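Hello again,

I reread your note about wanting to compare the complex against the isolated chains. To keep things tidy I'm splitting this into two emails, and this first one only covers the full assembly. Below are the input lines as submitted, including protein chains and any nucleic acid or small-molecule components. They are followed by the predicted structure of everything together. The single-chain runs will come separately.
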Amino acid sequence: MAYSDKVIDHAENPRNVGTLDKDDPNVGTGLVGAPACGDVMRLQIKVNDSGVIEDARFKTFGCGSAIASSSLATEWIKGKSLDEAEAIKNEDIVNELNLPPVKIHCSVLAEDAIKSAIADFRAKQAARRESVAAQKTGAPSKDAPANAE
Amino acid sequence: MAIKLPIFMDYHSTTPVDPRVLEEMLPYFTEKFGNAASRSHSFGWTAEEAVDYARERIAKLIGAQTEKEIIFTSGATESNNLALKGVAEYYKEKGDHIITTVTEHKAVLDTCKRLEKDGFRVTYLAVGKDGRVDPEEVRKAITDKTILVSIMLANNEIGTVQPLEEIGRITRAHGVLFHTDAVQGVGKVEFDVQKMNVDLASLTAHKMYGPKGVGALYVRRSPALHVAAAGDTWESVAKAYKARAGKLLEANGAAAGAKLEPGAVLKVPVPRLRLVAQMDGGGHELGMRSGTLNVPGIVGFGKAAEIMRTEGKADSARILALRNRLHEKLAAAIDEIYVNGSLEHRLPGNLNVSFNFVEGEAMMMAIKDVAVSSGSACTSSSLEPSYVLRALGVGDELAHSSIRFGLGRFNTEEEVDYVADLVIRKVKHLREMSPLYEMYKEGVDLKSVQWTAH
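Full-complex prediction:
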């Protein structure tokens, strides 16, 4: 199968490979896919106080198209608000990378990874707000993180 | 010495034509262009003579007793189709049962599927972790309705060599025909249709440095051979082969009651093997395969077989040393590397390994100047990982991580060193990018993670 130049570029020079601290309250982590299916993506976002994604990292076990899809996803979501990032569709990735039909699932996985990272971040924030509120009312909270304000 | 890129390490898929083969072929495209079926002029006679010479050379390579046992086809897929369908159609009154294995090439498996649709029953024998079929399983699967056993000489993905000699003894004793897809192994590992009691064997030129588009089916016409063991008597041999004692004596010109010396080679009369042609037309190839012969291709096939017969052993020893060198280098530098299939019973040029936590297609892309192949789903249109690796019990994740190196006649030590270094670097690079490797290093049990299958 011939790859598009953009897939080759991303696979050979992947952007934003790496790991963010998953315990950081400002970091959301999405882990999607399964080893038995041949692809696993982990995408992480770091969100600042104004709700903008200021950093994104990924690691991917998968084919060149899967690596390219996740690399492109991290590039796209940096600097975007959570809502903007959430609006990215797998078709956008397919079009940008010229993925053939047999590789469309790679783009679906990348979209899932973005959504899963955002959901994780939001869940963390919600848990944090709850524990802060609980502390203010004086109710005991066993979930209160150590670094909560 | 400078390395010339790209490097070809996919000799199981095909091989380049040996220059000596090409040289012999060339005149048969131009001045000696006759149709081997033309009986009325010298152009035809010249072509026919060349074809028969090729038959002799191929017969010699596989231990066939006469060149008449070689039937030319367009390739091994056709040979497999002809052997299975041709036998099934001819012997359907006698029985409707065929035995094969789950790791056969698709040309055998899909032909069996077709025969099942036509009412035949097929037993697909499992293989062990090492990729080999247990001959006892073959014996157990044979019923009085079994007409054919088809088991390959060597596997195209993992290079596993099957115990054909043991299987052949069983099929001969039960009076069941024995076919083998010998494509990958001929000339590279021991193969002898007499010694192994093979009745039908599929061959192709392009896996042995001959041209593409020409293959052959060996169809037994000669008596089988039996090497007498200590304690064998004429009666016990006749009984074992279900051949009438009289015929056995007649075939060997021996007087009844004469003592049988251990090591004596006896001819065992076997019923004439018949099959129904699957290609109708001018009745070429003893009526078994019609169609004008590809004379230049056949001439090349003959020369390729001749080279295999005279140089195959030395070639294999050299290639095995290269394979071992590659394996040792990779295993010394990379953790979590697994060899798929038996290392002992294996084609000399085959190294099928899984680099855990690295997906096969990404690996191939990373070493794109080296031609190899992978059992990863991503390389197939079906998105299923290799059925051969699955049959060995290799987990899907390791099947996705498999790379098949196929070494051959024109690989050099410099190429092996270059490839080993490149692969080691790229595996490290891709593992730095792999969430699974990170989790493994952190001590996470990947099997305990709730994955979202998709």
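For quick reference: Chain A touches chain B at residues 3, 8, 11-12, 14, 17, 19, 31-42, 59-67, 102, 105, 108-109, 112 (CB under 8 Å).

B.
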